[in-house]
Amino acid sequence: MGSILQSLNKTVAAGTLLAVFLLFLVTSHYGGFDQLYWASLSRFLHVLTGTMWIGLLYYFNFVQIPNMPNIPDEQKPAIGKVIAPAALFWFRWAALATVITGLSTLALYYGHEGAVNALTLTLVYGFDGKQLTIGIGMWLALIMAYNVWMIIWPNQKKALGIVEADMDTKAKSARTAMLFSRTNTLLSIPMLLAMVVAQNLY
């Protein structure tokens, strides 16, 4: 067991095998690979990738950014050159994966009409509280994902020196990335509420 837990790859592989085994056990409950089965699998992947995305968002805002001023200058390159680029890699790709799995979950659970109604905030097929709530959560998440890819990541590349930029541009880019990361933190609270509440509406 110790050899598994000392390796991240082995740990993830073991967790995946356990999940596959559990999935195999509950497959009989679904009566085979029907739509409910695929919808449940899609939702699992959505929650998994969303946990990675929002977890890293909260890491940046609750841990890294507030504590950077407390780190000695000679130690800051370890954050900027090693930790932050790795975290941003998983951050941005988890955001994209969350959007993709979210859209697939929407289609599988709600069907064409329900998905369109959620995406249009019930303006097409009429008011439905559950579809409106999930739609609000989705649009907040889409805005957040846009911020990640179109604003935070391009500015972080400049701030971290991944692309060439002068010191003034780096400082401005770091501030812009921070402000939009804080914006995403703000939006994540009502977004998560909408996602959770929607599951309990009829």
Helical residues, percent: over 70%
**Percent of sequence in beta strands:** under 5%
Question: How many separate domains?
Answer: 2
| Class by SSE composition | mainly alpha
Report, as a whole number of angstroms, the end-to-end distance.
Answer: 44 Å
Number of helices: 6
Nearest-angstrom radius of gyration? Answer: 20 Å
By DSSP, the count of extended strands is 0
Oligomer: single chain
Q: Helix and strand string, N-terminal first?
A: HHHHHH
Largest sheet: none
Q: Mean pLDDT, as a whole number?
A: 95
Name the overall outline: flat
Describe what this molecule looks like in 3D.
The protein is mainly alpha-helical and 202 residues long. It folds into two domains: 1-32; 33-198. The chain is built from six helices and no strands. It is flat, with a radius of gyration of 20 Å. The mean pLDDT is 95.
